[in-house]
Specification:
It is a single chain. With 168 residues, the protein is α+β, with helices and mostly antiparallel strands. The protein has a domain of 112 residues. Helix content is 26%, strand content 36%. It has an eight-stranded antiparallel barrel with strand order 1-2-3-4-5-6-7-8. It starts with a helix and ends with a strand.
């Protein structure tokens, strides 16, 4: 029994005194570096966005008058997006965010576009079906439409469908 114990202790001492194989150490280091890179490049958790209604003072301040399409989710009358030929606006956390129209995107009603890009988000818009006269505004047409707000990792952070009012 003593001999077996001495042999195990001797082998343990021999194992501790040996230098690690350089190829094994390089492979282990490479594995650790790849794990750190994977963790650092992973996107953060999705933060859902609930856009605020764009109110008349916002429209005045940003001079959002003229030909445009206003997207309101569900049965709400409060627009969440106002899209124009060159830009679109959305109110996020109480701040009006401007998006530039993608000139290569499909053209929609009132010369709006299907894709707008901002600093932190991109905005995709869709208008469906034939329009009907807007009972709330002359020279406007109502459609059904959908809004997709995406973060910089191209993940949906808001989706809303509802009424789209286009016109002057």
């Amino acid at each position: 029994m003593r001999a077996a114990l001495l042999m195990v202790l001797g082998l343990a001492l021999v194992g501790c005194s040996q230098e690690p194989d350089p190829a094994e150490k390089a492979a282990e280091d490479k594995k650790v570096v790849e794990m750190v890179r994977a963790v650092n490049s992973a996107p953060p958790p999705i933060e859902e966005v609930i856009p605020d209604a764009i109110l008349y003072p916002d429209i005045e301040k940003q001079d959002l008058f003229g030909k445009s399409c206003a997207y309101a989710p569900g049965t709400s009358m409060g627009a969440r997006v106002i899209a124009r030929e060159t830009d679109a606006y959305m109110k996020i956390d109480g701040k009006m965010e401007r998006f530039a129209a993608d000139p290569g995107a499909r053209e929609l009603e009132s010369h709006t576009r299907s894709l707008y890009n901002g600093r932190a988000y991109s905005l995709r818009l869709e208008i469906e079906g034939e329009g009907t006269d807007d009972p709330n505004a002359s020279e406007s047409t109502q459609y059904q439409g959908t809004i997709w707000l995406r973060d910089r990792w191209d993940r949906n952070v808001y989706v809303g469908s509802g009424t789209v009012s286009c016109g002057a």
